[in-house]
User: Which sequence fits this backbone?
């Protein structure tokens, strides 16, 4: 009998505002793209739009996916077997609220960084590659 390999799906948003990319500091002290887990019955594009609204207080138009990868987070209780991460470029349409300060995982820190600073940040290299690819 075949046991399928199942992992959580995390949908990320690349949102640029005033020439800067919005990032979130996670519990591992790394910067990552805003986003979250795909809800049952939800399409990934819907997740991206929902997460941008919840975390950044922004309505966005979800564009094309810019990357996808299986990422193993060894220190994570639910992602140590891997999490499938997919990211979309999202155009900021309007601000409807401020950025989130307390989220599902506790205190949330969001900052917008200039493209030139992204390569120096503590974050997985695939995020850096995806951000660099949309800049070119």
Assistant:
């Amino acid at each position: 009998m075949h046991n399928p390999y199942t992992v959580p799906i995390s949908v990320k948003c690349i949102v640029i505002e005033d020439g800067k990319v919005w990032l979130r500091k996670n519990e591992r002290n790394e910067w990552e793209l805003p986003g979250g887990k795909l809800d049952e019955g939800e399409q990934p594009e819907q997740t991206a739009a929902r997460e941008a609204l919840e975390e950044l207080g922004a309505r966005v138009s979800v564009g094309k996916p810019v990357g996808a990868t299986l990422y193993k987070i060894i220190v994570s209780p639910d992602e140590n077997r891997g999490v499938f991460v997919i990211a979309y470029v999202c155009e900021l349409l309007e601000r409807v609220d401020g950025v989130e300060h307390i989220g599902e995982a506790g205190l949330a820190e969001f900052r917008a960084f200039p493209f030139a600073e992204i390569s120096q940040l503590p974050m997985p290299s695939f995020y850096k590659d995806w951000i660099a690819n949309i800049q070119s």
Summary: The first helix runs from residue 44 to 56. The chain is about 20% helix and 40% strand. The beta strands are 9-17, 20-25, 31-32, 35-37, 58-71, 83-95, 102-103, 106-107, 109-114.
